[in-house]
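Table S2 (text version). Query chain:
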Amino acid sequence: MRAYFCILLGAVLVVGLSAAPALGETYTFTGAIDCGWNVKGNWNPTSGYPGSGDTAIIPASKTVCVGEDEKSPGNSDCGELVVDDTTAIVDIYDQGGTLTIESAAEINGEIRFRGQPGEFGPALHFGGDIAIEGTGIIRGDNASGLVLGRITGAAGDVVTIPSGFTIKGSISIHAELVNNGLVLVDDENDTLQLLTNLKSGGSTGKWKCTDGTLFVGFCTVSGSAKWVLKGDVQTSELHFASTGTTDSLSGDFDVTGGTFRIDTPLCTSGDITVKAGANNPKVIVIRNTTVTFNNPSCP
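Corresponding structure-token output:
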């Protein structure tokens, strides 16, 4: 009886060990075949390509494509993304392409939204609380101004961008965002929309429009990040829409050009500076809209 019991226990131990979850794989992009993400031969090791729980590394001078029909159809995902150099690029195409990052991102190069006019916008989706590291850029300014990339997030999860990091171009940001870097519109064909969920910023953050449209709507904005508006009144606009709200907003507004359009109640402890110069700015407040600056009692 004792011998039988020992053999049975040994079998249980073996089964338990074999059931342990496998660790995620680390894949480094080589581009040996083409730029496609979902191509085994484009990665080292060549046994597969990054998926859920895996780490994807894009090294210097390499460009990987997501959602491009010919090279990498469908969506792609990974646990952690490392865009390892200023010359490393991730292109997300407009045929419904979505890249999902589950847990971490270090972006020292570029993530670019690519597409043609009239196509459905590509998306970068964050599947959890993610504090981006690096000094790179997420950009939609090379998409003809007509293809709108999307930055999305899981409900209740927060994406934080660091000082020295930039988001710019034709993009709608739906994810809850903490901006300690730079959110920038600088081309008259581009529109960057802050939509849904909370948008906040720290003292190192800046919301800036020098050309094009920075639209704030369907979301709540807060924090001490500065708002900067420059450029021609015909092509540069900061628009706080009637669908947006503020909460503990304390960042100053620096208006030296463009059109600052407000059609939602705005209460902030931050100050506003309007300077006339080569680009005479306009501040337009829609009728019956209450706007208060430099008010420490704002909620």
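Notes on Table S2: The two ends are 75 Å apart (CA to CA). Residues 26-292 form one domain.
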